[in-house]
Amino acid sequence: QVQLVESGGGSVQTGGSLILSCVVSGHPYDSICMAWFRRRTGNERDGVAAIDSHGGATYDVSVKDRFTISKDNTNNILYLQMVDLRPEDSAMYFCAAGQTCGNWWKASEFGYWGQGTQVTVA
Asked: Which of 26, 30, 71, 122 has the greatest CB tally within 10 Å of its CB?
């Protein structure tokens, strides 16, 4: 069974930086698609970035050039480096694992989720 545990959230000022981490266990980590989602209002989770088994990354246009997704295959950790944070980036951030990055922006494509970590930008 796949387990994902996020950390690294917090409160920062506009223009600040944070690095989110997601420790993955219980599955061959390097054979699946990993992604970060965020939930700003309501229950909808919006795709932020995804990385495939070959290390290919893709981003939502709202975070491109500010956020970087990466993974440490040795230690099974997914990262999201965030710079130039804006108030609109405030959200609960979730990491997710799925079998394909084909429709990475769709939360329904991912079967495994972490509990989330809160990011607040003032």
From this structure: 71
Using pLDDT thresholds of 50, 70 and 90, give the confidence band for residue 28: low
Cα–Cα distances in angstroms (integers) from residue 36 to residues 104, 106, 108, in the given order: 9, 11, 13
**Under DSSP, is residue 97 helix (H, G, I), strand (E, B) or coil?**
strand
Give residue 31's pLDDT: 59
Question: Measured on CA atoms in the order 52, 20, 59, 119, is the torsion positive or negative?
Answer: positive
Q: Characterize 80-118 residue by residue with b for buried, 16 or more Cβ atoms within 10 angstroms of its Cβ, and e for exposed.
A: bebeebeeebbbbbbbbbbeebeebbebebbebbbebbe
Report the distance separating Cα 78 and Cα 114, nearest Å: 12
Q: Read off the pLDDT band of 43 (50, 70, 90).
A: confident
Residue 54's Cβ-count burial label (10 Å; 0-12, 13-18, 19+) is: exposed
